[in-house]
Each structure stands twice: as structure tokens, then as C-alpha cells.
């Protein structure tokens, strides 16, 4: 009787452990944005500075999340950040769209904001967003201002 009860307790423990592992995996996948909608396509944008943008960050158009940042790598040829985006299939971006790194609030999370252009041609899957605006480093600007490193423009030359 005791041996059978121990076997049952072991099976229940393994079942509970497997359930906890499955819930943990699902939470990580949702956090990475894998389940944004099965129908999506990849797009790449190249930035001079991404700040603290992370994989899983949102891609937003007009305040609506339309994609996620998949990965951020360094282009070894020009030392710029290559940001791989996964866009919803229902969102077609004109080729003259502009991608910008933005901050939610003063010290909030970073995200990519896209301003769609007016070109009738659309970016194809695995295409590139050519126009980008890098992150503005607020802390650097504040420290420059606080310590007097902000330079005023020089007066025009008088001839």
C-alpha cells in the first residue's frame, strides 16, 4: 500500500513539475512577442544608435502595436545596429516609411515608432526600412545642460 501511494505521489509531482515548466515557457514566449499573430513578415531597419531597445519591444504606428523587435545585431561593415522587426501581415508599409526609436515617457521602455510614407510601392518581406531616426540620449542631454557643455551657436561672421 505504501509503495503504491509513493508511486502515485511521484507521478503527481512529475505532472505538476511538467505543468509549471510549460507555464514558464509560455510566459517567456509571450514576453518575447512570439504570439503576436501567426501571420507576420520580417523587415529590417538600420540605426546609428538604438539606446536600450531590446528584443521583444513593440513596433507602433499611430499608437497601435503592429509588430515586435525580433533581434538587434551589429553590422560589422559600418558599425550600425541592425534591428530585425516582425510586422503583422495586415500592415503594409510604404517604401518611404520612417522608423524611429522612441521612449515611453522620460525613462520608460524603448519602442520603434513607424511613420508610414506616401509611396505607392510597399516594402516586401525581408525588405529594409531605409529612413531611420536614432534614439535621443536624454541623460546625456541633461548632463550636458547641467554641466554647461551645451554650446550656443557662434554669431555669424561680419564682413
Q: Give the fraction of residues assigned to helices.
A: 25-40%
SSE order, one letter for each helix or strand: HEEEEEEEEH
Radius of gyration: 24 Å
Based on CA inertia axes, which overall geometry fits? elongated
Integer tally of domains? 2
Largest sheet: 8 strands, mixed
| Lateral strand order in the biggest sheet | 7-1-4-3-2-6-5-8
Total of DSSP H or I helical runs spanning 4+ residues: 2
Low-confidence stretches: none
Q: Terminal Cα separation, in Å? A: 106 Å
Rounded average pLDDT: 83
Structural class, judged by helices and strands?
Answer: alpha/beta
Percent range for β-strand residues:
25-35%
Number of strands: 8
Describe this protein's structure:
With 159 residues, the chain is of the alpha/beta class. It has helices spanning 2-32, 138-146, and strands spanning 40-47, 58-61, 64-75, 80-88, 98-103, 110-115, 127-129, 131-133. The chain has two domains: 1-32; 40-136. It contains two helices and eight strands; from the N terminus they run H-E-E-E-E-E-E-E-E-H. Strands 7-1-4-3-2-6-5-8 form an eight-stranded mixed sheet, with no helix packed on it. The longest helix is centred in the first third of the chain and has 31 residues, at 2-32. The mean pLDDT is 83.
Amino acid at each position: 500500500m505504501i509503495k503504491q501511494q509513493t508511486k502515485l505521489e511521484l507521478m503527481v509531482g512529475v505532472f505538476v513539475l511538467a505543468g509549471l515548466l510549460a507555464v514558464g515557457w509560455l510566459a517567456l514566449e509571450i514576453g518575447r512577442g512570439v504570439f503576436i499573430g501567426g501571420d507576420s513578415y520580417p523587415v529590417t531597419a538600420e540605426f546609428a544608435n538604438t539606446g536600450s531597445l531590446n528584443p521583444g519591444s513593440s513596433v507602433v504606428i499611430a499608437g497601435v502595436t503592429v509588430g515586435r523587435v525580433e533581434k538587434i545585431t551589429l553590422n560589422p561593415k559600418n558599425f550600425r545596429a541592425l534591428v530585425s522587426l516582425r510586422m503583422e501581415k495586415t500592415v503594409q508599409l510604404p517604401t518611404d516609411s520612417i522608423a524611429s526609436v522612441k521612449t515611453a515617457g522620460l525613462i520608460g521602455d524603448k519602442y520603434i515608432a513607424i511613420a508610414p510614407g506616401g509611396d505607392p510601392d510597399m516594402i516586401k518581406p525581408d525588405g529594409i526600412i531605409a529612413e531611420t531616426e536614432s534614439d535621443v540620449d536624454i541623460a546625456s542631454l541633461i548632463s550636458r545642460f547641467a554641466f554647461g557643455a551645451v554650446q550656443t551657436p557662434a554669431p555669424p561672421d561680419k564682413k
